[in-house]
UniProtKB/TrEMBL annotation:
<keyword id="KW-0813">Transport</keyword>
<keyword id="KW-0675">Receptor</keyword>
<keyword id="KW-0472">Membrane</keyword>
<dbReference type="InterPro" id="IPR036942">
    <property type="entry name" value="Beta-barrel_TonB_sf"/>
</dbReference>
<feature type="signal peptide">
    <location>
        <begin position="1"/>
        <end position="23"/>
    </location>
</feature>
<dbReference type="Pfam" id="PF00593">
    <property type="entry name" value="TonB_dep_Rec_b-barrel"/>
</dbReference>
<dbReference type="InterPro" id="IPR012910">
    <property type="entry name" value="Plug_dom"/>
</dbReference>
<keyword id="KW-1134">Transmembrane beta strand</keyword>
<dbReference type="InterPro" id="IPR008969">
    <property type="entry name" value="CarboxyPept-like_regulatory"/>
</dbReference>
<keyword id="KW-0812">Transmembrane</keyword>
<keyword id="KW-0998">Cell outer membrane</keyword>
<dbReference type="Pfam" id="PF13715">
    <property type="entry name" value="CarbopepD_reg_2"/>
</dbReference>
<keyword id="KW-0732">Signal</keyword>
<dbReference type="InterPro" id="IPR000531">
    <property type="entry name" value="Beta-barrel_TonB"/>
</dbReference>
<feature type="domain" description="TonB-dependent receptor-like beta-barrel">
    <location>
        <begin position="413"/>
        <end position="937"/>
    </location>
</feature>
<dbReference type="InterPro" id="IPR037066">
    <property type="entry name" value="Plug_dom_sf"/>
</dbReference>
<dbReference type="InterPro" id="IPR023997">
    <property type="entry name" value="TonB-dep_OMP_SusC/RagA_CS"/>
</dbReference>
Amino acid sequence: MREVYRKLTMLTLLLLSVQLAVAQEFTVSGVIKDAVTNEGLSGVNILVKGTTSGVITDIDGKFNIAIQGQQATLSISFIGYLSQEIDVNGTTENLEISMTEDIANLEEVVVTGLATNIKRSNLANNISTVDAKSLTGTTTGATLDGALYGKLTGVNISAAGGAPGGQTAVRLRGISSLSGNNQPLFIVDGVYISNIQLTNGSAVASGANAGREEGGSNRVSDINPDDIESIEVLKGASAAAIYGTRANAGVVIITTKRGSEGKTTINFNQDFGFNTIQNYAGRRQFTAATVESTFDASERAIFEAARERGRIFNYEEELYGEKGFITDSRLSISGGKDKTKFYFNASRRDEDGIMKRTGYERTSLRLNLDHDITDNLTIGFSSNYINSKAARGPVGNENNGGFSVGYNLALVTVDWEDLFPDENGVYPDGRFAAANVIFNRDLIVNDEDINRYIQGVKLDYSILKQDNLQLKLIANGGLDFFLGKTFVYMPETHQTQRATTNGFISSGRNNSLQYNYQAFAVIDYFTGNNISLNGQFGVSYLNFESDATLSQTTQLIPTQTNLAQGNSFSTSQRLTEEEEFGLIAQGQVNWDDKIITTLGIRFDKSSLNGDPNKYFAFPRASIAFNIANFDFWTIPSINLFKVRFAYGETGSSARFGSLFTPLGPTSVGGIPGLALPTVAQNNVSAQLGDDRLEPETSQEIEFGADFAFLEGRIGLEFTAYIRDVKNLIYPFSSIPLSSGFANSIRSDFDLRNTGIEIALNANPVVNPNFNWNTTLSYWQNEAKVDRLGVGEFQPSGEGFSLTFGSSFIREGETATSLAANIGGVTTIIGDAAPDFQMSWYNQLTFLKNFDLTFLWHLKEGGDVLNLTKLLSDFGGVTPDLDNADVIANPRFATSGAAGYIEDGSYIRLREVGLYYNVPLVNKNILQGLRIGVSGKNILTITDYTSYDPETSAFGPSGLSQGIEVAPFPSAKQYYFHVGLRF
């Protein structure tokens, strides 16, 4: 009997324990919505706090999660929204949770190393970010760099002109190099991509300008902006040190869109628009009397006869007056299941320019795949094929060979010349300029064709995963390959060609292969006293190879455009190969989100250094104090008060070819050989190299404070920095030609960049009928020459003679100085750097279904040398030459080049867009319909008197800014948009 009781007791206890276990497991369900739109949010992370258990919401924002125990806390997070914690128990069901936008970006995750990231609220650096909505949500961006205008603090953007396809310079925190690249390093999904500018050979038509002045596009313009999920910009050495010798000018990290688990989503967007000129420089309105006083009496008679026939034209409007039609079509498909996610995008942009026979086309295909091979191993692929074509027309600063439309329009094409072809198709010669600008527009060819493939791959392997310890192996890399073709044709009937080379063809082939890989071990350890440790240790490798061939011919057989149909040939080839290897270590200690410290170092060696096997160290250190997270903080309205300090170093190796003295072909007694090239001033081929060169280095101290008020509805960031760039490498051309060389490579140049960056984010109004987000940004930078071993000089290839003005380097002055010869004395006449810049970005939602977005951009100061006006003054066609003050004080005769320095300040409406989200009764098939209109650069307020105060004649890579020479005018754009979601 006792045994029976014992067994019954055990059975009872077993049943009770089963019932208790069942009672201690419960399920919570619910939906998560946007607090303003009340629409479900897909992809929200719901994690049971203190465990690794979690789920994400479906396409409608719904979720179900099983919880062990009697109660728990749910941590809810989503990119762009403030995180929340919700307490739940066995009686909790059908939760409805509203999430508010993270205006102060407290929850935003940003990169702090090659394999790790961190919440912005814990960050010790000022890293600018742009999300997909800010990048392309307002209006269509033709190119990636062009879409960034005015959206990043600490970033200066300028263009060499408005020709379709872009040629844009992006500069982070001032000047980083004198002869090297001032453009940042661009990384797309872990792949280091090329951003070189292709030369097309048009400079050779007369030998009158450098390849950088040809107006070709730079290759980051190939990337489709619609593919991008987010952009993070590491502006200075304190943030970019972990990227080593490629990061002296900063780093732009681009993350493309990827698929997520859930229902497959299809988005189709169709945009229609047109280009129109942003601003005319204007043409002088002649009378018979002013024609005679400017030219002579015989020209007056020609003018009067043309006027009687009604054959007086405005050639500026004739050339640049087209309304170029634009279409942009984009189809994306994304989705996936628990193991495999995908994102596919196909896009096609076709853009006509503001001048006939100019335009830009880009076709882009992207496929991103992510697959969980096992529970511990994930692999991701990013594949992108691009074909881009640009018909740029006869643009650029080609001044003696009659190629450039703009140059010949200014110097000098008069509006009573009849330059149109006769009934036989024969164009008359220009009587004043070196070319007939209508002939150039109609018959000169200047084309570019790029086929590009970018492949990235990433492996993520979890070696060890415990409650307080994780060890992962992360490896990623890829390749960037493109084949670029350029073609330039000047017919043999061109008036300058008839007198010289009887036609000109230049055909270029540019092969570029860049590949990289990196592998890291990443350790995360969580102690029992609210301290977390993170470490990453790894290697990085980069190889860059290029083969650029330019074949040219003259003495053309009439009407032929084939290289083989000429009678005088020349071919040049430039082969480059660069190789870099780095060792990286970085550690981070986080005490309860109160104090966060980071220490890191990178050791790099490069084939571009004098000793290719010598490692150079690039350290970094930072600390952030989240004061509002300490227990003593008692001000509830301020939920973030952080002070931060950071230090870092980056580098930049010498430009390829700087280490050695190049040799050229020669012949002695009919026997071929190699010798020093013929000396020509500023000719890089006659350069005296230096095989002892070491990298330029940047040393930056950054400090600042961040605030967030009223639960993140207001955020304020303040940053100041001092960046010293040491041992800048540059070619010095002021050496005696009797030395046998045109220039020598030196590195005795230091400069200091100092600056301030301020950003204010706010959500002043929040309710279902009206919501307003606004961001106000301010930034300034000054770059001063600290040390210069050669006194002062005009940089090679960074301007014209001091008669007409040039960039100029003088110790104690800014590195962006403009100078001219006044009375035999080299005089600083201006500074191309702005005094400061501001932007004001706004997003408004009203009446539930309307969205209004606009971006204003202010640039205060920044002098521009307006050589367009100088040329048109020489030609007598400047609009204000009849002004009494100008007649009494001619600009060039009175002040030389200094008479053409103008203030480049402006206020510009960069973007504005109004959209309507059409309410749908039945969402079985069509999930969303959005229509809208937008504009880009549609209003500019400035006193600058030429085409655009942002343009510069010398391309995106070098030092020069603020020199304008008859560019292809910038355009403003208007769009109509239709977006469908299935």
